[in-house]
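Q: what sequence does this backbone want?
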């Protein structure tokens, strides 16, 4: 059984401010995020990772670098555009409250009704487009596990990971928000018996190792 560990990046300045970062925006990790990444490493310590697949956006790359260092392992790492966050077009850099005023239909569908999401007006990426670029990264990684027992690490972004993980579980797009969002520095674990879908959910949005009190801005 191949185990897949999906980590959302640490909390950033824009997360705290309630801004969409998306595929092209970015902001620094908060200083306290590095302590939380170390806490995640403590929860994962003892698990030997065969490979890491990381989004090229700095907030994810810095999370992965800090996590791997804290794990004390030499983990082969692939930085891949397939793991980028949703392209949110005109919403990127905007505060959630401003998006709600300017693009209420798109925001509601993106957050609450993915089956109705049409990003044409904001020049964004659709759920099928996102899944089409993310799934191959995971399926190829699982296919390369000739032992069938590897632990694989994926470091990416909240909205993208929700869609990716639910697609790997066979969830229809319309139901992709059924389990809620993912918290900064959380880990979600799946099991795969080869690259055939659906995979099996072991743990969703695990944050038990974080010592701080969670806030609404931690989860998307």
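A:
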């Amino acid at each position: 059984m191949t185990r897949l560990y999906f980590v959302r990046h640490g909390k950033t300045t824009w997360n705290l401010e309630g801004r969409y970062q998306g595929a092209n925006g970015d902001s620094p990790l908060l200083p306290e995020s590095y302590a939380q990444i170390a806490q995640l490493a403590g929860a994962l310590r003892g698990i030997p990772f065969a490979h890491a697949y990381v989004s090229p956006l700095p907030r994810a790359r810095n999370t992965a670098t800090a996590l791997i260092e804290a794990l004390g392992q030499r983990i082969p790492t692939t930085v891949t555009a397939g793991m980028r966050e949703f392209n949110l077009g005109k919403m990127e850099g905007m505060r959630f409250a401003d998006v709600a005023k300017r693009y209420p239909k798109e925001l509601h569908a993106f957050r609450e009704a993915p089956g109705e999401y049409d990003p044409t007006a904001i020049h964004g990426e659709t759920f099928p487009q996102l899944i089409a670029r993310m799934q191959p990264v995971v399926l190829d990684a699982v296919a390369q596990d000739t032992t069938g027992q590897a632990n694989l690490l994926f470091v990416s972004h909240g909205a993208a990971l929700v869609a990716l993980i639910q697609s790997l579980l066979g969830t229809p797009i319309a139901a992709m928000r059924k389990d809620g969002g993912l918290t900064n520095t959380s880990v979600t674990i799946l099991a795969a018996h080869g690259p055939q879908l659906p995979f099996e959910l072991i743990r969703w949005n695990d944050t038990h190792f974080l010592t701080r009190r969670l806030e609404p801005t931690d989860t998307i």
